[in-house]
Amino acid sequence: MTHVVQHLRIPRGPLELAADLHLPADHDPAVPRRAVVLSTPGSSVKEQIGATYASRLAQRGLAALTFDPAHQGRSGGEPRDLEDPYRRGEDISYAIDALGAVDGIDPERIGALGICAGGGYAVHTARTDHRIRALATVVAADMGAAWRSPGLSPDGPAAALDGLAAARTQEVVTGTLDRSAWLPDTLDEADAAGIDDVDTRQAVTYYRTPRGGSAHSTNRRLTRSDALLLGYDAFHLVDPLLTQPLQVIVGGRRGSTGSYETGMRLWEMAPRPVDLLVVEGAGHYDLYDVPEHVDQAVDRLATFFDAHL
Questions:
Q1: Angle (deg, nearest 10), helices 51-59 and 291-308
Q2: What is the Cα–Cα distance from 29 to 40, expressed in whole angstroms?
Q3: 3-class DSSP assignment, residue 173
Q4: Is the peptide bond preceding residue 271 cis, with omega within 30 degrees of 0?
Q5: pLDDT digits (tens, 9 = 90+) for 76-129
């Protein structure tokens, strides 16, 4: 047995978060251990990227907690499929609350790992929740910057907000909440839409096939989430507030996700950057589950957390 998993329900106000705590096989509740909370990509649930990284970190001696965000997966919260960046950050703090009450976890040695959109959420949370003693990101994304970009807001963010305002008014009239797909559901759909971008197609083959798909990940986003994302800045006030040691991991193959550029921007902004890893030959989605790339990242993550927790 390489590690063990405990299933938890984390109180979060009137609802609960579904979580998995990955522990080393030799975990002794009498001996306080370092722990890491994982913040996962938009639409992702704990059995996907979170489990890939948490299981490997547990095999290297760390406790690692991954959870379904509120309103998604097997966590509570209505309406479903809400992607609220501010609530995503609060989820991390509630997860830390829960970790601090687990026997064998040292509440003074808790770190955070954010992946893709979860990287931006983890940064935003760590600025003001200094119970996070060390912070690492893998292919971090700033969802606000992405949503304001020409690719997602071709007429500008203000025009996008005007359209979302009209759409929400219509939702009230009809009583039906609108949902958008994060990705095409199949490669055939991507073909029909003329999508030939490598990163988007890799995302489809990860999230929407048995390779990485989960029945608990709907691939749907409540459309009213987009107004929240358009106004979000994951790195706001990073310079004065993010005093924890920071590790940034990016893929060396740049692509349409912009995660390489986002990671480098974070590295330049942060007041205490201590470790930067460029995984050569890896694209954004290669760092989700391709063993040679994930293992390289996890080796570096384990070294970072061992040194700074």
A1: 60
A2: 27
A3: helix
A4: no
A5: 999 999 999 999 999 999 999 999 899 999 999 999 999 999 999 999 999 999
133: its two tokens: 């003693």
pLDDT in tens, 245-262: 999 999 999 999 999 999
CB 114 within 8 A of CB 138: yes
Q: Which residues contact 281 (CB under 8 A, 6 or more apart)?
A: 252, 253, 293
Element containing residue 277 per DSSP (H, E): strand 273-279
For residues 80 and 280, what is the distance between their CA atoms, to the nearest angstrom? 38
Angle at 198 between CA 193 and CA 204, to 5 degrees: 65
**Which of 36, 50, 239 minimizes the C-alpha distance to 132?**
36
Q: What is the DSSP letter of 85?
A: H
Q: Is the pTM for the entire model greater than 0.85?
A: yes
> In angstroms, rounded to a whole number, what is the distance separating the alpha carbons of residues 88 and 68?
10
